Structure formats: C-alpha cells, structure tokens
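Minutes, structural biology subgroup

Action item carried over from last meeting: produce the structure token record for Adenine deaminase (Candidatus Opimibacter skivensis). EB confirmed the sequence was re-checked against the source entry. Recorded below for completeness.
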Amino acid sequence: MTSGTFSIEANIVDILNRNIGFGKISVTNGKITEHFISDEIKEGWPYLLPGFIDAHIHIESSMLTPPAFARRAVMYGTVSTVSDPHEIANVCGIEGVKYMVDLGRKSGFKFYFGAPSCVPATPFETAGATLSVDDIRILFEAGDVSYLAEMMNYPAVLSRDPLVMDKIQLAHDFGMPVDGHAPGLKGMDAENYASAGITTDHECTTLEEALDKIAAGMKIIIREGSAAKNYDALHTLIDLYPDDVMFCSDDKHPDDLLQGHINQLVTRSLLQEYDLFNILKIACINPIEHYNLMTGQLRINDIADFILVKDLSSFEVLSTWIDGVQVYNGHEVLLPKVEIPVINSFGITNFTKDSLQLKLKAANANVMVAINGALVTEHETILMNEGIFENDIQRDILKIVVVNRYSTAPPAITLIKGFGLKKGAIASSVAHDSHNIVAVGTNDDDLATCINEIIKHKGGVTAASGNEKYILPLPIGGLMSGETAEVVGRTYETIDHFVKSVLGSTLTSPFMTLSFMALLVIPSLKLSDKGLFDGRTFQFTSLQ
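Output recorded by EB:
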C-alpha cells in the first residue's frame, strides 16, 4: 500500500471551523498539501470529512483479530480506535499486548493501544498473567502504547494504593494520558478519583454521574456496546459539553459489528436533532486531541485520514482513506491480508459433571440477577429449600459456574436470575477480565457438555441442549477467531439465535451478558473462579 499524489473534489466538512463548502483537497505522500473550501455547497456531490474514531474498545471482544476488525470497521468510516488489550493481557501477559500491537501495525489501520493497568483486574481471581509496573515501563519505552488503559481498581485509587499510584505516575512521566473506569462514583469520590490524574470515564450510566465527573475535570466517553448501552442516559451531553465527550463501543460483539460502528451513533444523534458539528467533533476530533493521536483532522499538513460519504444524514460511506491510502472504495476493502499466528494459555484438560453438585440449606440465598443491556447485576435474597439444588426454571433461578482454565481446580458455583433459559446451557471462555470459563445452564449434563466443548477447542462460545450443540471456536487466547468478521459474525448469530429461540433466553445479548458475570470490578454480585464476590464491599461473600 503506497500513497502517491491525488486530489479529491467534494463538499468538504470543516469540523474545526464549523463550515461546509464545495472544495478540493490534494494529498502527497500521505499528507494533505492543498485544502480549499468555497462558500457554497454543491447539491448531489458527496461529502468529505475526517474519519470516525472509537475512543475506547477492546478489540478482543469482537472475537476478531486486529486485521479482521479493521477490514470491517473501515466500511463504516472508522479510521482509528483507542484500544485496551487487557483481555489478551490477562491471558498471555505482555506477549499478548505485543501480539495485538504487531498485528495492528500490519493491518493498515490505526490502532492506538494502551498499556493495561489492571492485570489481573483484582487479586480475587485467577488470571493467566500479571502486568507489573516494569512491564508497563517496557511498553512505554518501546513506543508500543499511547496511554495507560482503564484504571479499574477504583477502590485502590481512592485509597491511593502505592502500586496503583506508581502506574499512574509512570504514565505521567512518559506524558501519557490515563483512562478511567469508575462505575457509580459521584460527588467527592469522583473528585478524588479524577485528582489522581485520571482523565476519562466510559462507565457512566446516569447523567448525574457524568456531570459530576465532568465537573471534576474528566472527559466522558458515551458507551454504546453490545451489552452496556448508555447513550440514552447520556446523549444530552452532546450539545451541553461537546468539548468533553467522545463515543465508544467498549465491547462490540461480531454480529453487531456486521451492522455498523461509530457511524451508528452519529446518525442516531442527528435523528435526535443534535448539532451536526458537535456530533462530528465528538466522533472525529475529540479523541485525537485528548490522546494526541497521529490521525488527521483534514487540515493542511495533516495526515490524510478521511472518509467520503454520500450525504450528511445516512453517512453512507463511499470511500475511506488512511495515511493517504484508499482502504475502502465502497465495494471492496483494500487493506492488506495479514498472516495470523495463534497464541493461547489453556491448562485444563477435562471437566466432569460430578463437580457441579450444589448443596443448599433451608435458608436465604444471595442470588445474582443479570440485567438486560447492563454490566452491573442486582442482588436478590431468596429463600431456598434444603438439599441438592435443582434448577428452578419457573422462578428463573439457574446455576452459574466459573471454571479456572489455567489449572485444575474445583469450580465456583452460585445462583443467578435473569437469563431466562428454559432448557440447555451456554458457556464462554470470554469471561472478563481473567477469561476463565463461565457457564449458565438448566441442567448439569448440558453444563458439562458446554464446558468440555470449550476445553476441547481451547476457547470459544458454545450452547447445548441434549444432542444439539453449537460452538464458535476462539483458539487465539480463548478470545478471538482467525476467521473474517463475516464468518465469525454469522456463526455467532447462529448460536445466538439458538440460545434465544430454542433455549429460551430473554436477554438481548446473552453471551455478552454472560461474559461480564465474572467481572468483579463492576457491582453488584459477581462470580470469580474463587467464589461469589460483592462488588460494593469489594470482598467475597457467601451464597448462604
């Protein structure tokens, strides 16, 4: 892929100066060398503007490698992502981060990876690796990363834990911004968290929370992913604080990526009649300025990263350019094909259903409650009968299991509501953030089948009911497939449809929700491979 000299005539969208007019840009060796805009718009001509940027995403959650993700994203006008590789880091450590960086560089797309700050996310779970302060220093010194990724251990930040503060200070020493992760923090807690030198948050679920964090000096990244959807709660920020807001996916499953990316938030915001230039500043400009990205803003001497769209209502992408190279022409993706090596860490070799037995007392039980479209869970206290637990499908009380994938150990088992399964079981090796095996099911036979399918393939998402079973293998870290977005997305859609239509799940995205049931840093009750955890008190609790 090379960039020569060329010119484009179109209606040019000058976001920085809030102006649109017919004009011409010229590009030489990947940079904009001429930029002219008239005072008039030519009807029927397409529009040229800077490309879209996802300001916070875990590429691994798409179940795609960076090159495969890029090939889909450019079709929607995305030219850059701010990406936290902490999923693969939890499995493979610093080598996992370098793996993502290397594939990103070969992809022809602009991936800006961060140094994961919390690997493992907590000391209350088993991960495949640890990233120390020294490891983060190595990544900074090598120029492999652009920022310190989300600081999830917010209790340690609030208490100014020395190890956590050392990582933050190291980022500041290298002139790197520090991303936040502070669900629910408001008032003085938000001020305390921000004053540690943390500058963003993508976990806001209420406008009150977002306003408190903006007042504390933080940038708010409005998240609309496959499981966590906060746009409806936060969209008024678009016109209230256009300088302090960005858009992100956080976690985007492959079937959703087949439908669109940041372009969806742009068109959605327009339909709600927000200011066009505010929307585009949020989608195209603010991430560049906050993270100091080497992505162009459509100015003289800028890197030639831009998109050509049919109009400013549908934003149908006709062409995408990165570094002055056309990477999508409206019909074909022109990015290079990249060879994909496999890395992984999988120690467990088999699993028996005998270990799934759960004995209860005649007493109240602390039951997890999954919430559709959210990463948080609720906590219900439910009276249970004494004896061996049989799944209570009528009350939607099922067994949830987390199995240590890295070494042989007894599984952690508790109870959960909210999945709505009427039969069968589902399981996944995508289980934030340590990525052990997490499973929910109506019976032990199907639970064991699903868990063993994942062990057999060294990663995947699977569903089973009796003799009928489906799996999407994820051999790369137990997180990603080596296939294209189209193959992965369609396979995922097939399994997802089976889980909803045959097994009866009532969740919009059952596998995405399942993958967050082991994420301890987001309340309320979660399950790690070591037991039931209360995210509000940040300590283990008991089922009964």
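Discussion: Residues 485-501 form the longest helix (17 residues).
Next step: EB to file the record with the rest of the batch.
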